[in-house]
Amino acid sequence: MSSEQPADVPVSEAETKTLTEEEKALRRQKNKDKKKKKKAASSAASEAEDLTVENLVLSEDDVKSRVLSSAQADLLSLLQAGGKLPKGVADMKKEHAFWQTQPVLSFDQKVEENGPIETKTVDQVMKEPYPLPSAFQWEDIDMNEPAAVDEVYNLLSLNYVEDDECMFRFDYSREFLRWALMPPGYRKEWHVGVREIGGKRRLMGFITGVPAHIRVYDATKPMVEINFLCVHKKLRSKRLAPVLIKEITRRVNVTDVWQAVYTAGVVLPKPVAQNRYYHRSLNPKKLIDIGFSRLHPRMTMTMTIKLYALPKQPVTKGIRELTKADIPQALTLLNNYLTKFNLVQQFSAEEFEHIFLPRKDVVHAWVVEDNNKKLTDMISFYCLPSSIIGHEKYNTLKAAYSYYNVSTKTPWEQLMTDALIYAKQLDYDVFNALNVMENDSFLKPLKFGIGDGHLQYYLYNWKCPEMSPSNVGLVLL
Ligand code: MYA
Predict the structure, then answer these.
(1) Euclidean distance between CA atoms 279 and 431, whole angstroms
(2) Where a domain ends, among 253, 273, 293?
(3) From 176, 228, 347, 352, the catalytic residue
(4) What is the domain count for the chain?
(5) What pLDDT was estimated at residue 88?
(6) For this structure, is 477 an active site residue?
(7) To pair with 96 at 20 to 30 A between CA atoms, which of 16, 192, 339, 406?
(8) Cβ < 6 Å from ligand 1: which residues?
(9) What burial class does residue 435 get, using C-beta atoms within 10 Å of its C-beta: 0-12 exposed, 13-18 middle, 19+ buried?
């Protein structure tokens, strides 16, 4: 995650129902029932196939995974079901058989310092990959190979992040994946696949890392950004995820890199920041039709459409699409702006060019140029659709995600209104934003509603004080 971005795709609370409550409940129930049936079938099938990765590989984690007795587990789920424990809190009470073996802070640890948790050298790192059960093998995924990209796309589009009610699933496009996974300095061996050896030789697991220079408070380190951790639905809960994480850690460590940054919707030991997703309707009728948002009881559809209407053209004088010639100035503008925050990526010119030069249906960026040809402001968003699961009329929710925005002259509300207008012109249904950086200053006035989606930021092998959402200056895909 991303992105995991809104790790789940939430129903906006700022808006209200038209899909009647019964219709929505019915669809959710249907989706859940389907999921349950599939899960039961798949677990029976996999028992028969004896694909229990944990029995075969994870002895060390395995022992600890039994720590939470079934009585405790039952109690936890009972409390959760009764609404007594919010999900995040329940997550914190769980034992983490894998994560408690890793160099990460535990939930009760509070620290003042800013530095690595453990220090190792390359010669202490295993040279061979972690063993997999005999039915599987590791494979470096070559994102230059269209067939390999297809396989990754198929795995993720059917098995990646869904919202809690199984109504939406992230649908990263092939072009997006190539863009996200091939920044300057990328390594093929950090695009890690797990493939079946026999049968259809399907890709069953995936995890990726890309290099980035990350500053945490006053320390800057070469790190990896970890994303797209995915295990095929048929292999869930067999402890394959810890094997993928350990293998990518090994592959990163052998290059003398020891820290990582990642985001997830789940609460694990221990977030460095906990952020929220906000949503701004661009196509309220569709969002209501698909159950993403609800019609307020005292509002008609016509009133709602009017509420979210936007001017046809951007309003800021001198705003235009980012071009290659802008890169030196725009890079300085962004890197200077990011000095305000405690967790940021430091972009090189090559990285900036790769990341921000507009690519249709992947990433878009605009700058504001003043009369002296000076760039004063910048906006950008990336394009991440979600599949709409089991809807008879619509397959896709077209979502724009706020990326990096800088305002030194144009007021935030005006600048981000232009971002909404561009997104609307490009036919997006919704504009999503995290409460990172200075986003709070425009979310309410521009009619964003808070979503159900939480996004935790994590650092691997780094201890530092927690930070507030607005001190985060990093957006992962
Ligand atoms: S976030 C996106 C994650 N992907 C999805 O949500 C897609 C749909 N879900 C799945 O594919 C599976 O459910 C996954 C888990 C693969 C998520 N991050 O194999 P298991 C822990 C980290 O039996 P499964 C993203 O991509 C869980 O707490 N750990 O479970 C960033 C438990 O450990 P513990 C997670 O459901 C990824 C263990 O896995 C996550 O079959 C950053 C259970 O394993 C999660 N999102 O598979 C990865 N979800 O017992 C870390 C579950 O201890 C990178 N778990 O609680 C760390 C840095 C590495 C590089 C370091 C270099 C220096």
Answers:
(1) 6
(2) 273
(3) 228
(4) 2
(5) 61
(6) yes
(7) 192
(8) 1-2, 4, 65, 96-99, 159-161, 224, 226-231, 236-242, 245, 248-249, 252-253, 257-260, 262, 264, 266, 268, 460-461
(9) buried
The percentage of residues in the chain with a pLDDT greater than 90, rounded to a whole number, is 80
CATH number for the domain spanning 290: value is 3.40.630.170
Q: Within a domain: residue 124?
A: yes
How wide is the angle at C-alpha 260 spanned by C-alphas 137 and 407, nearest 5°? Answer: 130
474 given a catalytic annotation = no
Instruction: Compute the distance between CA of residue 95 and CA of residue 184 in angstroms, rounded to an integer.
Output: 38
Higher pLDDT, 465 or 66: 465
227 is catalytic: yes
For atom 55 of ligand 1, the residue with the nearest CA is 241
Active site residue 408: no
- Determine the distance from the C-alpha atom of residue 227 to the mean position of all C-alpha atoms in its chain, rounded to a whole number: 7
pLDDT, tens digit (0-9, with 9 covering 90-100), for 342-357:
999 999 999 999 999 9
Give the residue whose CA is nearest to atom 44 of ligand 1.
239
Find the 229 Cα to ligand 1 centroid distance in Å. 6
Q: Is residue 315 part of a domain?
A: yes
Residue 377 and residue 248 in one domain: no
Range with the poorest average pLDDT among 84-93, 363-372, 384-393: 84-93
> Is residue 154 located within the same domain as residue 233?
yes
Q: Which of 229, 415, 459, 474 is the catalytic position?
A: 229
215 domain residue, yes or no: yes
The verdict on 236 and 296 lying in the same domain is no
Q: Which domain holds residue 286?
A: 277-451
Please report the sign of the dihedral spanned by the C-alpha atoms of residue 188, residue 162, residue 19, residue 304. negative
The distance of Cα 201 from the centroid of its chain, to the nearest Å, equals 28
Q: What is the pLDDT of residues 257-266, one digit of tens each?
A: 999 999 999 9
Q: Whose CA is nearest to atom 35 of ligand 1?
A: 241
DSSP state of 153: H
pLDDT at 66 over 90: no
The answer to whether residue 366 scores a pLDDT higher than 50 is yes
Mean pLDDT (the chain) is 87
**Residue 359 in this model has a pLDDT that exceeds 60:** yes
Greatest Cα-to-Cα distance within the chain, rounded to the nearest angstrom: 71
Average pLDDT over residues 223-234: 99
